[in-house]
């Protein structure tokens, strides 16, 4: 997960939490709903980036298992 992606996800979760809390305090159900939706969006971004990171790691392991990385290192 890149730093920019982490920041965007964190921003959405924090902003969403603030909107949710403000909506609860003021009795504004629309604002509260927006906050919950924004928090979920941030969590979704985190999950998507985690999947990407896992896929990259698995690809690297597969490459190493078939000799891609080991062969390159042995040629040095």
UniProtKB/TrEMBL annotation:
Biased composition (Basic and acidic residues): 1-14, 43-55
Pfam family, one: CsbD
SUPFAM superfamilies reported for this sequence: Hypothetical protein YjbJ
Gene3D superfamilies referenced in this protein's UniProt entry, alphabetically: YjbJ
Record-annotated CsbD-like domain positions: 5-56
InterPro entries: CsbD, YjbJ_sf
Top-rank taxon: Bacteria
Region (Disordered) location: 1-76
Transmembrane segments: none
Protein family membership: Belongs to the UPF0337 (CsbD) family.
Protein name as annotated: CsbD family protein
Organism: Nesterenkonia natronophila
């Amino acid at each position: 997960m890149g730093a920019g992606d982490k920041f965007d996800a964190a921003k959405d979760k924090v902003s969403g939490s603030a909107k949710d809390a403000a909506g609860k305090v003021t009795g504004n159900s629309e604002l509260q709903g927006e906050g919950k939706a924004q928090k979920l969006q941030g969590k979704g971004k985190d999950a998507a980036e985690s999947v990407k990171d896992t896929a990259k790691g698995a690809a690297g392991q597969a490459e190493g298992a078939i000799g891609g990385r080991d062969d390159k290192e042995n040629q040095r």
